[in-house]
């Protein structure tokens, strides 16, 4: 696998966007003409191949949805930095970041991405735990006497 240090990402050769989902934040760069590069860097600085990192084929396919919808699959390399959350949330954050980066690359792709619902951030977050309760909604058993 090729490491990030082997090539340089600059504003001239890439398009950047940030994607968020649940507790995950993904900084995403798409690199035109470098389809063989799909790298994910985690919070501890380790770099992985994108397909190896998400492990599940369904999550990998979810990440690639923006490319399939716009007909640009195989034309871009992906470099993503992910922070927080789990694999599923990170995969969705990368997907949202890719959609926004494609928009920066070509604003004419907006109708396709909008129709597929890829430009809307999924704002659902974990509900906080309340005091005197087991969790956000679950309560301790109430005893009358």
UniProtKB/TrEMBL annotation:
Pfam families: Ribosomal_S9. GO terms for molecular function: RNA binding; structural constituent of ribosome. Keywords: Ribonucleoprotein, Ribosomal protein. InterPro entries: Ribosomal_Su5_D2-typ_SF, Ribosomal_uS9, Ribosomal_uS9_bac/plastid, Ribosomal_uS9_CS, Ribsml_uS5_D2-typ_fold_subgr. GO terms for cellular component: cytosolic small ribosomal subunit. The keyword Ribosomal protein applies. GO terms for biological process: translation. Belongs to the universal ribosomal protein uS9 family. PANTHER family: RIBOSOMAL PROTEIN S9, SMALL RIBOSOMAL SUBUNIT PROTEIN US9M. This is Small ribosomal subunit protein uS9.
């Amino acid at each position: 696998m090729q490491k990030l240090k082997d090539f340089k990402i600059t504003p001239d050769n890439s398009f950047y966007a940030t994607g968020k989902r649940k507790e995950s934040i993904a900084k995403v760069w798409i690199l035109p003409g470098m389809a063989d590069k799909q790298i994910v860097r985690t919070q501890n600085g380790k770099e992985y191949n994108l397909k190896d990192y998400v492990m599940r084929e369904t999550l990998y396919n979810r990440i690639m949805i923006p490319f399939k919808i716009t007909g640009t699959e195989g034309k871009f390399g992906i470099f993503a930095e992910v922070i927080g959350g789990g694999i599923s949330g990170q995969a969705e954050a990368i997907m949202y970041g890719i959609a926004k980066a494609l928009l920066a690359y070509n604003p004419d792709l907006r109708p396709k991405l909008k129709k597929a619902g890829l430009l809307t951030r999924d704002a659902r977050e974990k509900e906080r735990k309340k005091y005197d309760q087991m969790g956000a909604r679950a309560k301790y058993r109430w005893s009358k006497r």
